[in-house]
Description:
heterodimer, A: alpha/beta, nine-stranded mixed β-sheet, 12 helices, globular, B: mainly alpha
Amino acid sequence: LAGGLCATGCRGKGGGAAEVVVYTSVDQVYAQDVFARFTERTGIRVSAVFDTEAGKTTGLYRRLLAERSRPRADVFWNNELCRTIQLAAEGLAADLSPLVPDDIPRRWVDPGGRWAAFSLRARAIVYNTAMVTKESAPKTLRELTEEPWRGKVAMANPLFGTTASHVAALCEVMGDEEAENFLRALKANGVRLVEGNSVVRDLVAHGEVAVGLTDTDDIFSGIDNGSPIALILPDQEGMGTFVIPNSVLLVGGGPHPSSAEAFVRFLLSREVEELLAFTRARQLPVRADVPRPPELAAVASLRAMDVDYGKVAQRMPAVARRVEQLLFR
Amino acid sequence: LAWPTGGKAFLLSIGLGASGLVLALLLGFPVGVHLGRRGGGVVAALALVPLAFPPQVSAYVWRFILEDTARFVGGARASWGFFGAAWTLAATYWPLVAFPLAAGMRLRGSRLEQELATLAPARAVFWRAVVPGLLPTLVAGGGVFFLLSFSNFAVPLMWNLPAQTVAVFARLAAFYSPAEAAMVALPLQVTVLLVSGAGLWWLSRRPYGLDLGEAQVAERAGDVGGFRWEGVATVLVLLVTGAVPLAALVTGPGSLTMLRANLLAGASPYRWGLVLATLGATGALALGLVLALLARRCGRVFRGVVEVVGLVALFVPAAVVSLVLAGALEGPGWLSPLYDSLGVFPLAYGLRYFYIPYKTVGLVLRLEGREHGEVAKLLGLGLLRRLEVTVWGVLRPAVAVSWLVVFTLVLGELEIATFLAQPGRQPVSVYLDNLMHYGWSAAVTQWTLILVAGEVALAWATLALGWGQWRRLVART
């Protein structure tokens, strides 16, 4: 049966110029709008492979590696940067530097042209407005380890997703010893570790904990749903807030090179940044002059953590091992 | 949050499977007895409703019902955790216990009840004579339930339980290491695999003692009149596990608005979900059928190997199966077209689930005496005609049921779909999972309702086809 289907032409779509294959870990509800707009503009159809929320980019990362000898994907659009850098380091990327617009800040473009980044989320402190006032809410990550917040803080499992990148970034900025002390102090202060960032938001919204550490897109969607929550961008007076850009990688040897280039150009355009800014996720454009909703005005001037994402990506496997030992053993 | 270490994750999965099994037996036993005694297409169709829920949606609905009801009553959000997951598995998969039991009851139990009616009170006959005779069907149905619960990914994930399947995914997500993921609890898993294999081997040596003559008697005995306890219990089970989640969906936000828009938006995932499920079920059936026919002619060694491979395929987390398959197909260039084609799905799901049709068809083949073939030969029938009136006629209900069960499982499957779905071919299970990330939405409720309705209709038609053929065969005999 399998051989018959294979032989009779029930194959994956490929070969045609009017198609681009995109592997994406971006939430489907947002990515679909971008794909539809791209098809509308260019007539090129997007065949997407989405990861599951449970997979946290795992499925796509492994698929891209498994398919490296005969790539099926043209473009990898990731909702964060570190795994993209890891894939680039594995030699999967083609040079996309000619496709990157000049108005994207150079900080968000790989000097080697293997990836580019755009539209940011940030790691923020979420608090329940019925339990905590804006004045008394913690303004730094270190405050989460202090007595007033004992047993009142939630955070996603730091082995996965954006929390894993955040912890690796802390190790890079603070130094390993200090970052480990911070994690130990969090644990000693009774931090509640849960399986995802949306769960952190829900726990805070339900009043089960007073504050949490999560992503801005989760917080904004909670605010949209009417939850009594608000956000603080931590460490604006100190090391800055860790930000998480979308990233794109042009897969070397992909089946539709010209369509892929068109898609990367479109993805890095002002139009897409504006589109993502007005979704429920409220992603912050990296270009200062792209229109954005009023609620992003407050975070537009944020002081972003000054960290080398390449080094963060390199550190992640070792940091994950250390976190496992510190928090779970 | 508990980080799922190998041993703990494995034990948690065993506990979930075992606790779910106890609950599933409680739910499935009365319905199985009722179906066996009275038959009834309506009850059979309603009994398929829970099974038609994709596991992740079922977990989502039950989590909403249990946690928010508790919060409403008690003022605090209760954490049901382990019980919630075990209950979800039982409330979704109990028909897997009920239907084999119904088959056993129909073929053997009703006849015994009729024959012993004058010798002892009905209750004593039922518990002391009928139920012990149904043990093989209970073990078979319960065994399939346990294996599917043990290897389920979506339910423990939705209930935040670090079960083994979640542990595998967690290690992949944290360390991106398939080898480390595959090694989670492997030694213990092998141990349980060996114990399960020994149990099934023992079961295979138990006499079933069923033949078409008894089935004919059972057909008549099936029309037992009067009020029985299992009728009330059946209604309760159908209400709690079918009507309650359906009601929760129907009353969910926006479930009856924007139907057309969501229908169009989700048309592609639905189409590919159906294609994958059809190909997967057909692949599993084809493989199971061929192996069952071969096992009839081959020796114990062959049957033992098939048993072990089938159990391993059901037992090992699907993420590992997918990665191994992807690696194998991506290796040599000549296999690469298979990886790119729809052919990968009958292969992947066939390997994963062939054990179900293999056992179902194998059981029926054991019941089908060779004398029927001899008689047909003496009557001068040709080979094809002989196969049609003997083997195929007997096999058809088993073929229909096992195809349907695998179809249902594939439609809700998440792991293989995540790793192997091709560009532009996202199936409905992945689509629903991603939608649920944003909570209880109109799209989730609508898609699930359509899925459940469509699947129950398909299931009813398939069972009617299979069962109708069975009736015609009995009449002809």
